[in-house]
Write a structure and sequence with these properties.
212 residues; elongated
């Protein structure tokens, strides 16, 4: 009989394993092996987590690869990397806005709006990193980054209108390179975030796409 702690670990590992496109037979076999390892660790009075020798998800990744030949979806790493980027970007914006509000004589209403947006960017990254291994949050992650992209496009709408009105003359303006760099810095990672979220769909959805 497993202890409560080991039961929780086994449930966590089973839930993680089920996010991969494996058959029920393969999943049951892996869970059975994990339970056996936990029981043996208990018989030797050893901590099951220490016996694994690595974080739970890393152990499961190795086990899944050895049994099913499947590696963790690239979407998870992509989602985690872009999430960290958005957290840094958001924190940078938050600090800059707070300095502007507290010490500079900038437009307060605009600064507060930008602060709210920066907090949203940070939360987008925080939520993505916290749920990059949770396929059940794919829809929420997708909706979040799509909203971020739409807001960005509205922010650039004024510049787009000016560019269309000025034509080729706009390309010679000093603001043009800044506009391009800003769009790449904001929308590039957002697209990668979206790709990561979509590639990290539940196993059932992945298998449906493959079978079509």
């Amino acid at each position: 009989m497993l202890t409560k702690k080991n039961k929780r670990m086994v449930r966590k590992m089973k839930k993680y394993i089920k996010t991969f496109p494996l058959t029920e037979k393969e999943i049951d076999k892996m869970v059975e092996d994990i339970v056996g390892m936990a029981e043996e660790a208990q018989e030797r009075n050893e901590d099951f987590e220490i016996v694994l020798g690595k974080p739970v998800h890393e152990f499961c990744d190795d086990l899944i690869y050895s049994v099913g030949g499947i590696k963790a979806p690239g979407g998870r790493k992509l989602l985690r990397g872009t999430s960290i980027y958005f957290q840094i970007l958001g924190l940078w914006g938050i600090v800059g806005c707070l300095i502007n509000i507290c010490f500079l004589d900038g437009e307060r209403v605009h600064a507060l709006w930008v602060l709210a947006f920066a907090i949203g960017v940070w939360y987008l990254g925080h939520y993505g990193e916290a749920n990059c291994n949770n396929t059940e949050k794919t829809k929420q992650l997708t909706v979040g980054v799509v909203i971020y992209m739409v807001v960005n496009l509205f922010m650039y709408l004024k510049e787009f209108i000016i560019a269309i009105d000025m034509g080729k003359a706009f390309l010679k303006m000093s603001d043009f390179p800044i506009l391009i760099i800003g769009m790449i810095a904001n929308l590039g990672p957002a697209i990668l975030y979206l790709i990561g979220a979509r590639r990290n769909r539940p196993a059932e959805e992945q298998m449906e796409v493959v079978n079509r």
